[in-house]
Amino acid sequence: MSSLQFVGQTTKINGKIIDQATSLGIPFATIQVKGTEKGTTSDIDGKFSYRGRKRPTFSN
């Protein structure tokens, strides 16, 4: 589950990284913007938030 919000030049993405087999959140997973060193880490429940200047491309 994730949501995208574009405001001016800022992008905000909220989501949750889940284990496909158990549907439980994956704690402390690394989320990285493709082609950059930018990203974030999920919390103990698998939830994350990212805010940046450009619309990012994420990879699986």
What does this structure look like?
There is one protein chain. This protein is an all-beta fold. The protein has one domain (2-52). Helix content is 0%, strand content 42%. The protein is elongated.
Give the neighbour order of strands across the main sheet. Answer: 1-2-5
- Rg from C-alpha positions? 12 Å
Helix content: under 10%
Helix-strand makeup class: mainly beta
Residue windows where pLDDT falls under 50 for at least 5 positions: none
Mean pLDDT: 83
How far the N terminus sits from the C terminus, by CA atoms, comes to 14 Å
How many strands? 5
If helices are DSSP runs of H or I spanning 4 or more residues, what is the number of helices? 0
The coarse overall form would be elongated
